[in-house]
Amino acid sequence: MKEQRLKLKLSRRELARRAKFSVSTLVHIEQGHGNPMLNSMENLAIALGTRLSHLFEFTQNRERR
């Protein structure tokens, strides 16, 4: 997720605004803490211009490393 944000050249503040999160919530999600609601993840996917399933694919690939 962080990689996608950086690829789009979005600051944490801007992505949080687009996803309707606080910056601290976004930081927690990027760091893998917490358990965000599905609708929050949908907002994040929309803000990143990607599919919700892509966020989960990324998470699964990262856990396999």
Model description:
- The protein contains five helices and no strands.
- The mean pLDDT is 87.
- 14% of the residues are buried.
- The chain is mainly α and 65 residues long.
- The longest helix is centred in the last third of the chain and has 13 residues, at 52-64.
Short structural description:
The protein is built from 5 helices and no strands. By secondary structure, the protein is mainly alpha-helical.
Descriptive keywords:
mainly alpha, 5 helices, 65 residues, 434 Repressor (Amino-terminal Domain)
Low-confidence stretches: none
CATH architecture term: Orthogonal Bundle
Rg from alpha-carbon coordinates: 11 Å
N-end to C-end Cα span: 16 Å
**Average pLDDT figure:** 87
Percent of sequence in beta strands: under 5%
SSE order and pairing:
Blueprint: H1 2-7, H2 12-19, H3 23-30, H4 38-48, H5 52-64
Helix pairs in contact: 2-3, 2-4
